[in-house]
Amino acid sequence: MSENPEPEISYETARAELRDIVQALESGGQPLEESLSLWQRGEELAGICQRWLDGARARLDAAIAASDDHG
Questions:
Q1: % helix / strand / coil in the chain, to the nearest 5?
Q2: pLDDT grade, residue 2 (50/70/90)?
Q3: 70 band by pLDDT with thresholds 50, 70 and 90
Q4: CA atoms 8, 45, 11, 65: torsion sign
């Protein structure tokens, strides 16, 4: 297994699902076990989003460095 596997879903999909989970948790009304499951999935999605953002930042930094080397 590689150290940094690609996220299994797109950033946009993960972000949208995370937004839905946050809304569900804020509205309340679900049993504790369901709330815990939602929270766990939200943590997974937050991690996926963070990996996408970290990858984007690394690519941006590399592009800036390459541009500085040639400029």
A1: 80, 0, 20
A2: very low
A3: confident
A4: negative
16: how many CB neighbours lie within 10 A of its CB?
A: 13
Q: Taking a C-beta distance cutoff of 8 angstroms, is the pair 14, 45 a contact?
A: yes
At 14, list the tokens. 């993960």
Return the number of other C-beta atoms located less than 10 Å from residue 37's C-beta: 13
**DSSP conformational letter for 7:** P
3-state secondary structure of 71: coil
In CATH terms, 11-70 corresponds, of 1.10.10, 1.10.287, 3.90.1200, 1.20.1740, to 1.10.287
